[in-house]
Design a protein that fits this description.
- By secondary structure, the chain is an alpha/beta fold.
- 41% of the residues lie in helices and 16% in strands.
- Helix 6 links the parallel strand 6 and strand 7.
- Helix 4 packs antiparallel against helix 10, helix 5 crosses helix 9 and helix 6 runs antiparallel to helix 10.
- InterPro entries: Bug_dom1, TAT_signal.
- Keywords: Signal.
- This is ABC transporter substrate-binding protein.
Length: 360
């Protein structure tokens, strides 16, 4: 019995994707036995999108059999990305749908990572917004709030785990001159906001798609003495356009624009945090195959079910050439990467002991 490419990938997934195999590329322009590897379960953001969009993608790719969805037990996409990078031929028959956590794991030097997302070709990105809320004196200027209230006061930041997606806020608050302490255990945004109301933490990071109510409702009912310090990503699909972007917050606090390797590292981490999910093809995928996938993803974004899903979660869907910049922003230069890894090496042991962040 002939071992099909699909059976080989499934066998590798069961074994943890440890052994590579050879796959002969399909004839240029022909897609057969196509599958979408998911960096998460069907309930994850990539899984939700894939189930909604699979019909439109299959039709646009003119597939003889429907696109096969291959979910993963992991939620951060690392295992699926390792399998994709090591074993997927550049024939367009395998694509990867992954969350921003997959990018973040690579940026932070996670020992499980054996892939280089900078080599992938993105064909779709679902971007989101991140808002950092912190305890402050609202009647003062931002600079007064940051230097006044937080002077000699470490900032307790609610995080899901050490090194999790809240690294965006952890680095951002550090750049603003504060001394954040990550307080782990807040996987759910509602619990983090409750802790902010109760005074258990001083700062939280939220995104509209993690909330059980509109962002504007959350911002209108913040506890006294707190406010949105800054936002990243695109706020144009919400009413909360008065939140300063990070550049504005930094200039108000420091009276100069941000610069340096650590700031550039934060920009990459922020781009990862603002990536709800993305779909990519392997490096060296022929241009005509990339064009087919771009067309298919564009068709998927026109699907009524996909549009409703994106609107509900406040995702901005971009495809084709417009998707590439979103992924490239998460690729820092060597100096920024080294600055981030050094900062993490110094502070991770401190955070585990409940100590404040040390500036380098």
């Amino acid at each position: 019995m002939r071992l099909t490419r699909r059976a080989a990938l499934k066998g590798l997934a069961a074994l943890g994707g440890a052994a590579p195999f050879l796959t002969l590329p399909a004839r240029a322009g022909t897609l057969t036995d196509v599958q979408l590897l998911l960096g998460g379960t069907l309930a994850s953001i990539p899984g939700q999108f894939a189930e909604l969009a699979s019909g439109a993608i299959s039709h646009a790719l003119d597939l003889a059999t429907p696109l096969e969805l291959t979910p993963d037990i992991g939620q951060d996409g690392v295992r699926a990305a390792n399998l994709f990078d090591a074993n997927s031929a550049p024939d367009g028959n395998t694509a990867l749908a992954f969350p921003g956590a997959t990018l973040l794991a690579s940026l932070t030097g996670d020992s499980r990572v054996h892939y280089d997302f900078g080599r992938w070709t993105p064909v779709l990105v679902a971007s989101t917004t991140t808002v950092v809320i912190a305890r402050a004196e609202l009647h003062k200027t931002l600079r007064s709030r940051l230097t006044g209230f937080f002077h000699d006061h470490p900032v307790r930041l609610a995080v899901s785990r050490i090194g999790g997606p809240e690294l965006n806020a952890l680095m951002g608050l550090s750049l603003l001159g504060l001394r954040p302490i990550p307080v782990p255990g807040y996987v759910d945004s509602s619990k983090a906001l409750t802790a902010l109301h109760e005074g258990t933490v001083d700062a939280v990071q939220i995104s509209p798609y993690t909330l059980d109510r509109p962002l504007d409702d959350v911002l209108a009912n913040l506890p006294e003495g707190t406010s949105a310090i800054y936002s990243t990503g695109d706020l144009t699909d919400t009413h909360s356009t008065t939140i300063p972007i990070f550049m504005e917050a930094y200039q108000q606090a420091r009276h100069r624009p941000p610069e340096g390797p650590f700031y550039h590292a934060w920009q990459a981490v922020s781009a990862a945090a603002d990536t709800a999910m993305a779909i990519a093809l392997p490096m060296l995928t022929p241009p005509e195959i990339v064009t087919q996938w771009n067309h298919a993803c564009t068709a998927a974004t026109a699907d009524a079910g996909v549009r409703r899903w994106a609107e509900t979660h406040h995702f901005k869907l971009v495809t084709g050439d417009n998707a590439a910049p979103f992924l490239s922003r998460a690729v820092p230069d060597l100096g920024a990467t080294l600055a981030l890894r050094r900062w993490l090496a110094v502070n991770t042991p401190r955070w585990r002991e409940g100590q404040e962040t040390r500036h380098l």
